[in-house]
Amino acid sequence: MPSTLSDSTARVAHVSSPLISLRSVDAGYRNSTVLHDVTLSVSRDSFTGIVGPSGAGKTTLLRLLLGSMKPQRGVIDRAARLPVSYVPQLETVDWNFPATVSECVLMSRAARRVPWASRAERGEVAAVLDRLGIGDLGERHIRELSGGQQQRMFLARALIRKPQLLLLDEPTSGVDISTRHAVLHLLADLHADGMGIVLTTHDLNGIAAHLPHLVCVNKHIVAEGTPEEVITPDVLEETFGAQMEVLQHLGMLVVVDPGGPRRMVS
Ligand code: ADP
Known about the structure:
The protein is an alpha/beta fold. The chain has 8 helices and 11 strands.
């Protein structure tokens, strides 16, 4: 798995200019500041995991990248007319919304003016669903999907907008291991096709260790770099507030959490 994701990164040979740059950004809600002094750039070359414990400000950072939230201080520069898609956490979705998979994907298109879809649009939806391995589920009600199928449906909604940058909030929480592998490989393929990808995760062994680039966040950026550079006991303690051991196993980094009441990684 890690070699596959790294290989896909290596295939993107050029270094792109930033799509979005945050400089000395503070951000938060009402009178409270959640993120302090964040400086970060993302480009089409990014395949980045934002890592940190619950409440660290990971989703807030995604909202800043998406543009749905303004900074309290600092500057955010973004490329003009940048198509960015966002895949929310599955837990935040109302699954009783009365729609089929195809309808849900169609509704996600930008600037949709008519309530029906053309043959070309239906063809596009079918192609995206096929690519995600759910081509046979177009007419199924979204309530009747498994966790892995729900995740693919949200990816389809994101991809139909042809984004240059894809943002995903905890894309593998609540899905089984084989779906987690499938989602990671799919994201690696999209990245190899030239799409920037930024995702949040608190899963160090299952996700973060497999990505080429990590940003460790706990109210500020604690460290940024490859897994080998940032998955260290010191960075993990500052990020998660807990002591953890880091081992090498078959060429992979493995984080061991001694456990107890302060246990934070799954
Ligand atoms: P994470 O994604 O790392 O779990 P979040 O960015 O969701 O962290 O949240 C960081 C902090 O901001 C938390 O204390 C959370 O309660 C607060 N927060 C998040 N969203 C809102 C909101 N819409 N209004 C007020 N506070 C919020």
